[in-house]
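Long-time lurker, first post. I've been practising inverse folding by hand and with some scripts of my own, and I keep getting stuck on stretches where the structure tokens seem ambiguous. Below is the full token string for one chain I'm working on. Before anyone asks, I'm not after the true native sequence, just a reasonable design that respects the backbone. If someone could post their per-position residues I'd love to compare against what I wrote down in my notebook.
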């Protein structure tokens, strides 16, 4: 149907240029016929003037008034009109010529010549519309050829036959032309259709590239572009732009429990809710997985920020219907407002991410707005990272030691190495802080190996009955061949392995028990002592005691903190001491800060004690001096502690 319409429109357009020629040819030949039969060209009322007037009018009409059209109906109507007129003209011309032939037999050849030229000219003029082009041939051409054939004389018969053949050939050519024309138009239509399809596909691809396939929201690429454009333009009238990043809490569990289709439904539903709520003022995007983002380029007031923060969490907490069930998840949300420090879209994202992290850390299902203290903490963290990665941190770090005493003998048996970093740029950085950062950066093994090397250098000055206790990091144990590397470092200091104890925290085991256990067994096999640190502060502690064997277990400092005031805490500590002994390990009471705590630890059966009241972490020299281990008589703080 579409093809047919296209054909009609094209035929009309081509004919618009050709039709005047058709009328001109017919007019010239009509005048020729008229003059050949002795007529006066300017007679007012004759068939010629009537015919001529009609032809002239049509010619002018097609040249001046017939406008191009894209409307199928108009084109079809004009074509029909044109065909009817041509047929009428053909019949009129034919009748006129036939009567002239009867009237002027002596002029018959000239009349026939003009008439046939008119018929052929008209057919040619209509060649863009081959079916219509047949009309002048059928109405005028063939009857005249037959008329010639019927005339007397051989020559007339021959010319008649020849004319029929020529007209037949012309008719055949018109048919061929018609088919070729149809094919050409079909080809052009198909080409046009292909072109349209390609343009549509390209538009779709551009749209897809900006769209998240599952939810139909904008994707990360589109969001980043939008933020980049806006940050370049600067904050809008409502203050800085606001970016929220939220992720679903409990999504993974729902996905695991009910399958991916359920997970997809949760994501789609949450996307729809966000879109419905915020799309009129903000760009809502899915960043990937269960992470979504909302960007208000024109900013929000303080109250509005609070409102949207809670609204996002609220929208996620509404149950999602799926397969007759109600699935429940939640969302935490981090928000940030572009300020003078938001120099790039990656910084903007980082702030929102940091706020989300904080929201999750405090209480899931809540929101948090990135603020100045957080900015300062992030700056500090970034500086720490820079110094660690550049190697300056390792150069500036040193090790202090804190003695661990045997309760029974009162003598120091271990000294725990504790890292210190007094940075000229950042001041004192606590080991808890930089160790965690180095772990995240994946450089903890290098850093800790460096610290071990520094600690071992000090051990060379110690009496042989004082061993080093060194903290290993969770991540460090996760690396393969870490045990061998540690052994090699100790070997390089020519120390027997019995003089080194490695402390490992519960959390380290929690990360990858299988691998950590393998490395620990290797260390144990090399002759080192292994201690479980911070026991009682994490989870699943007891199961480790059955799977791994430790020579020493250090009870977490928090267990000692309120042991004096709290009877239940005392009972728990007592139970844990028994547990350590049952596991075949000696136990250390950490964080002994008062003489009473020490006495209690001793009374409960702890084998070793460590804490500020017995010896604060200090340099190797100062520790040896305090302990009277630089060569003079040994001084044990335990004697003093018991007397206090
Ligand atoms: P940790 O292994 O539990 O170390 C004991 C922490 O308790 C030390 O803090 C120490 O200074 C502190 N402490 C000692 N006695 C007392 C006391 O009586 N009361 C109180 N409140 N605290 C006491 P520090 O030096 O800040 O180290 C913190 C943590 O950083 C360590 O906990 C350890 O996990 C880690 N760490 C320290 N140095 C290194 C190191 O060289 N390598 C690795 N991997 N971790 C280290
Ligand atoms: Ca420790
Ligand atoms: Ca500890």
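-- Answer (accepted) --
I ran through it position by position. Result:
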């Amino acid at each position: 149907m579409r093809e047919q319409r296209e054909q009609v429109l094209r035929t009309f357009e081509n004919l618009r240029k050709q039709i005047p020629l058709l009328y001109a040819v017919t007019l010239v030949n009509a005048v020729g016929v008229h003059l050949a039969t002795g007529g006066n060209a300017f007679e007012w009322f004759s068939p010629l003037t009537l015919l001529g007037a009609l032809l002239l009018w049509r010619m002018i009409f097609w040249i001046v008034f017939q406008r191009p059209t894209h409307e199928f109906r108009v084109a079809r109507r004009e074509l029909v009109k044109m065909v009817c007129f041509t047929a009428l003209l053909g019949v009129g011309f034919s009748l006129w010529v036939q009567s002239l032939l009867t009237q002027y037999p002596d002029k018959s050849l000239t009349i026939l010549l003009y008439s046939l030229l008119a018929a052929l000219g008209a057919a040619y003029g209509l060649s863009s519309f081959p079916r219509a082009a047949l009309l002048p041939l059928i109405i005028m051409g063939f009857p005249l050829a037959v008329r010639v054939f019927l005339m007397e004389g051989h020559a007339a018969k021959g010319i008649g036959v020849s004319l029929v053949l020529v007209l037949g050939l012309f008719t055949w050519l018109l048919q061929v032309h018609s088919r070729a024309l149809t094919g050409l138009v079909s080809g052009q239509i198909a080409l046009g259709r292909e072109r349209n399809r390609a343009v549509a596909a390209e538009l779709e691809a551009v749209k897809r590239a900006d769209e998240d396939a599952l939810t139909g929201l904008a994707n990360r690429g589109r969001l980043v572009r939008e933020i980049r454009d806006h940050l370049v333009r600067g904050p809008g009238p409502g203050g800085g732009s606001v970016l929220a990043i939220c992720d679903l809490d409990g999504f993974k569990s729902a996905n695991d429990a009910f399958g991916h289709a359920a997970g997809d439904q949760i994501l789609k539903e949450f996307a729809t809710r966000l879109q419905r709520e915020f799309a009129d003022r903000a760009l809502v995007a899915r960043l990937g997985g269960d992470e979504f983002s909302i960007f208000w380029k024109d900013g929000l007031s303080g109250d509005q920020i609070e409102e949207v923060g809670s609204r996002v969490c609220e929208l996620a907490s509404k149950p999602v219907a799926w397969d007759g069930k109600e699935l429940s998840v939640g969302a935490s949300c981090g928000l940030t407002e572009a300020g003078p420090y938001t120099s790039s879209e990656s910084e903007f994202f980082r702030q929102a991410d940091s706020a989300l992290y904080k929201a999750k850390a405090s209480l899931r299902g809540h929101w948090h707005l990135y603020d100045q203290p957080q900015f300062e903490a992030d700056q500090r963290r970034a500086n720490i990272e820079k110094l660690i990665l550049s190697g300056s941190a390792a150069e500036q770090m040193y090790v202090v030691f804190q003695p661990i005493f045997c309760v029974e003998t009162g003598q120091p048996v271990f000294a725990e190495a504790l890292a210190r970093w007094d940075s000229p740029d950042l001041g004192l950085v606590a080991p808890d802080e930089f160790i965690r950062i180095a772990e995240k950066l994946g450089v903890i093994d290098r850093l800790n190996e460096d610290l071990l090397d520094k600690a071992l250098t000090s051990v060379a000055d110690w009496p042989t009955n004082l061993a080093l206790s060194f903290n290993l990091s969770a991540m460090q144990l996760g690396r393969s061949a870490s045990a061998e590397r540690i052994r090699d470092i100790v070997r390089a200091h020519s120390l027997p392995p019995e003089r080194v104890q490695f402390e490992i925290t519960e959390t380290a085991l929690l990360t990858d028990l299988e691998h950590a256990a393998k490395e620990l067994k290797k260390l144990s096999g090399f002759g080192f002592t292994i201690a479980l640190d911070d026991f009682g502060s994490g989870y699943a502690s007891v199961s480790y005691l059955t799977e791994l064997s430790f020579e020493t277990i250090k009870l977490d400092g928090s267990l000692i903190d309120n042991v004096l005031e709290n009877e239940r805490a005392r009972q728990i500590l007592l139970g844990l001491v028994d547990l350590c002994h049952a596991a075949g390990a000696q136990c250390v009471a950490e964080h002994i800060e008062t003489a009473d705590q020490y006495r209690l630890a001793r009374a409960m059966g702890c084998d070793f004690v460590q804490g500020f009241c017995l010896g604060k972490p200090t340099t190797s020299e100062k520790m040896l001096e305090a302990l009277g281990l630089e060569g003079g008589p040994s001084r044990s703080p335990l004697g003093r502690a018991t007397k206090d």
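A couple of notes from the structure itself: Residues 402, 417-419, 430-432, 435, 448, 451, 471-473, 503, 533-534, 557, 591-593, 611-612, 617 surround C2E (ligand 1) (CB under 6 Å). The CA atoms of residues 421 and 427 lie 8 Å apart. Happy to go over any region you disagree with.
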